[in-house]
Amino acid sequence: MDYREYSKAEAYKLQNAGGLVMICTRGVGGRYNLAPIAWSCPIDYAPVSRFVCVLDTGHQTFTDLSASREFAMALPRPSQKDLILQCGSVSGAAADKYEAFSIPYFGANRIDVRLPQGITGWIECSVSRVIVEGTSALVLGDVLYAAAIEGFWKERFHYVDEGTSFAPGAEV
After folding, report:
1. Residues 6+ apart with CB under 8 A from 77
2. Residue 3 falls within a domain, yes or no?
3. Per-residue pLDDT at 154
């Protein structure tokens, strides 16, 4: 077998195949925001599921959830790739992404955030802990509510790096 060596800086790509989420927040000024985040995973399930998301501390999403102490993880479909790229291309501090990209949405169940229509599901969380390391923050969220369509996992969008994404059983 031929193995390609990865640099220390690129090694994350070997385990970066988790489903991308759109972190949905509401800022102190009332602006709703959403941002694509590729690094998130469950870290506990009993008595309540808990997730960790890695966020850049300089981004508006981190500022929003630090203030509100809540967020939702929207589970986008591969067909929403353009939306994901658009939302990742501009800061929520500089623009209202829902307005700028004409994103249709619906309200979450337990918290005040907007969720983009067409997602396969979502998870609403309260922030239980934040651990800052350099310019990154590990945000731990306890689940308040979760819902998804039947077979949601078949339609999850996975992001490895710019130019490399996939969905289970599909090309994107």
Report:
1. 118, 119, 120, 155, 156, 157, 167
2. no
3. 81
107: in domain: yes
pLDDT tens-digit series, residues 151-165? 888 888 877 777 777
Q: Is the dihedral of CA 172, 154, 157, 33 positive or negative?
A: positive
Write the CA distances from 106 to 66, 80, 88, 102, 117, integer angstroms: 23, 16, 20, 13, 6
Copy the structure tokens of residue 140: 């731990």
User: 15 falls in which pLDDT band (50, 70, 90)?
Assistant: low
**19 burial via Cβ count (<10 Å: 0-12, 13-18, 19+):** buried
Please give the tally of structural domains in the chain.
Answer: 1
User: Is residue 1 in some structural domain?
Assistant: no
Virtual CA dihedral for 84, 89, 93, 97, nearest 10 degrees?
-40
Domain-embedded: residue 127: yes
pLDDT for 170 equals: 58
Do residues 15 and 6 make contact, with C-beta atoms less than 8 angstroms apart? no
**What global pTM score does this model have?**
0.88
CATH value at residue 154: 2.30.110.10
Residues facing residue 170 across a β-bridge = 167
